């Protein structure tokens, strides 16, 4: 299935065409746990109204290091 078709299906399913860009500013390593918590709070609050979530690279790189976060990303992906 192509990207465009997947986006169209997700938009229809969620009755939304909102794309959330999690483009938080770069954080020093000692502050990155706050960044992850903030991203999770935003996702938890906004998820029902979203079609797509875009993660910036430094958030993904840091977030992917944690198994619990991998499971959370998988949960949001599966819900779409």
What this model shows, in words?
It is a single chain. The chain is 59% helix and 10% strand. With 80 residues, it is mainly alpha-helical. α2 links the parallel β1 (19-22) and β2. The chain has helices spanning 3-14, 32-46, 57-63, 67-79, and strands at 19-22, 52-55. The model has no long low-confidence stretch (mean pLDDT 78). The chain has one domain (3-79). The chain has a two-stranded parallel sheet with strand order 1-2. It contains four helices and two strands, in the order αβαβαα.
Number of domains: 1
The oligomeric state is single chain
- Give the tally of β-strands: 2
Q: First CA to last CA: what distance?
A: 14 Å
Mean pLDDT: 78
Q: Within the largest sheet, what's the order of strands?
A: 1-2
Strand content: 5-15%
Could you spell the SSE succession in H and E letters?
HEHEHH
Content-based structural category: mainly alpha
Shape: elongated
What is the makeup of the main sheet? Answer: 2 strands, parallel
Strands, helices and their partners?
Elements: H1 3-14, E1 19-22, H2 32-46, E2 52-55, H3 57-63, H4 67-79
Parallel strand pairs: 1-2
């Amino acid at each position: 299935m192509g990207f465009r078709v997947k986006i169209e299906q997700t938009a229809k399913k969620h009755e939304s065409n909102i794309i959330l860009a999690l483009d938080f500013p770069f954080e020093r390593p000692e502050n990155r746990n706050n960044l992850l918590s903030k991203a999770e709070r935003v996702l938890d609050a906004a998820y029902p109204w979203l079609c797509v979530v875009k993660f910036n690279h430094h958030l993904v790189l840091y977030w992917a290091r944690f198994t619990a976060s991998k499971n959370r990303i998988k949960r949001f992906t599966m819900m779409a």
